[in-house]
């Protein structure tokens, strides 16, 4: 019997859509995409990106360094999460161990504090990597929420403008 979040397991309990997805070909595709993005980003930052960053003006050079650190951090978080899920899928780690490891991996959004005009002056390839990584992180975050076992309707909703509001708070000195 199927319900809103997935199907029933042998005990009659619901199997979450997220748990089903991490064991599927869809997860393998997501895993490969994530790892390929890590490799592509590393190659860019260690190769062409170095040259491109040297040709930037001072404000853009600082922005490049900041965004590349955010990008690297975000990719490390995603890769860690993907590797933990793969380890569970392959029987190398129990679900309990994965939950413990999950506490160490922060999938919180890493919001850029750059003004849009400064971001637009960064090299196109860096901007593309930042945007693609952000989209991948959003997909991983949705899957992570689903793995928590709650139906999506019970998950706390995230205001899509929260990142922009946080930038405004910082710009005008408002704290949380």
Nutshell version of this structure?
The chain has a single domain (24-147), classed as Helicase, Ruva Protein, domain 3, CATH 1.10.8. It has eight helices and three strands.
Main sheet: which strands, in order across? 1-2-3
Any idea what the CATH architecture is?
Orthogonal Bundle
Number of strands: 3
Radius of gyration: 19 Å
Task: Output the CATH homologous superfamily.
Answer: Protein of unknown function DUF1465
Measure the end-to-end span: 45 Å
What name is given to the CATH topology? Answer: Helicase, Ruva Protein, domain 3
Give the overall average pLDDT.
77
List the total number of helices.
Answer: 8
Characterize the overall form: elongated
Structural class: mainly alpha
Element order: H for helix, E for strand: EEEHHHHHHHH
> According to CATH, what is the class?
Mainly Alpha
Number of domains: 1
Question: Tell me about the biggest sheet?
Answer: 3 strands, antiparallel
Helix content: 55-70%
Beta-strand portion reads under 5%
Low-confidence segments, ≥5 residues, pLDDT <50?
A: 1-18, 151-158
Can you describe this structure?
The structure is a single chain. This protein is 65% helix and 5% strand. The chain is mainly alpha-helical and 176 residues long. The chain has a single domain, classed as Helicase, Ruva Protein, domain 3, CATH 1.10.8.930. Helix 2 runs antiparallel to helix 4. The longest helix has 32 residues.
């Amino acid at each position: 019997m199927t319900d809103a979040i997935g199907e029933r397991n042998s005990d009659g309990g619901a199997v979450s859509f997220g748990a089903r997805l991490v064991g599927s070909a869809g997860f393998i595709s997501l895993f490969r995409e994530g790892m390929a993005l890590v490799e592509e980003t590393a190659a860019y930052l260690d190769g062409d990106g170095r040259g491109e960053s040297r040709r930037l003006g001072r404000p853009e050079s600082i922005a490049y360094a900041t965004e590349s650190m955010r990008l690297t951090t975000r990719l490390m978080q995603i890769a860690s999460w993907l590797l933990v899920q793969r380890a569970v899928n392959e029987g190398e780690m129990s679900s309990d161990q994965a939950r413990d490891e999950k506490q160490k991996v922060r999938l919180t959004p890493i919001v850029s504090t750059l003004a849009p005009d400064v971001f637009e002056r960064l090299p196109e390839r860096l901007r593309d990597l930042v945007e693609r990584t952000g989209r991948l992180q959003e997909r991983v975050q949705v899957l992570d929420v689903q793995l928590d076992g709650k139906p999506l309707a019970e998950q706390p909703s995230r205001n899509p403008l929260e990142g922009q509001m946080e930038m405004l708070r910082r710009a005008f000195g408002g704290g949380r």
